[in-house]
Amino acid sequence: MMEALFGAFPLAYATILNALYIPIFMMIFWLIFRAVAFEFREHSEGKFLWNFAFGAGSFMAALGQGFALGSVIEGITVNEAGHFIGSTWDWLDWRSLQCPDSGCRNSSWISSATNAGD
C-alpha cells in the first residue's frame, strides 16, 4: 500500500511517513517478528514459547496499526506547503491510545467468535 501511495501521492507519503514513523516501524518490526516466530515454531520441540511469541507479535503489530489509525483520525500537523511540522511524538495522544484498545478488543472478539466451533 505504501508503494502505491508513494507513486500516486508522494507528498502525502512523505508527510504520513514522517508523522507516523514510530507506529509504522513498530508495526513492520512486529510483523517480521511474528513471521519469524511462525517459522521457528514449525521446527521446535516446545511450541509454547513460539506460540506466545506469535501472539505477542500479532498484538504489538495491531497496536502499531491502531496508533497509526488513531493519529490519522486525530489529524497530522502540516504547514501551508503540506509538509509535516509536528514533533516525533505527535501521534501519541488519547485518541491514538483508544484506537488500538478497541481494535485489539474487536480482533479478539472476532477470533473467539470464529474459533468457537472448533
From TrEMBL:
* Molecular function per GO: electron transfer activity; oxidoreductase activity, acting on diphenols and related substances as donors, oxygen as acceptor
What is one term from the GO cellular component aspect held by the record?
Answer: cytochrome complex
Q: How does it sit in the membrane?
A: Multi-pass membrane protein
The membrane spanning regions, by residue number, are: 12-36, 48-69
Keywords, sorted A to Z? Cell membrane, Membrane, Transmembrane, Transmembrane helix
Which cell locations does it reside in? Cell membrane
Biological process terms in GO annotation: aerobic electron transport chain
Q: Does the keyword Oxidoreductase apply?
A: no
Name the major location. membrane
Which PANTHER family does this UniProt record tie to the protein?
Answer: CYTOCHROME BD2 SUBUNIT II
The family line of this record is: Belongs to the cytochrome ubiquinol oxidase subunit 2 family.
Q: Name it.
A: Uncharacterized protein
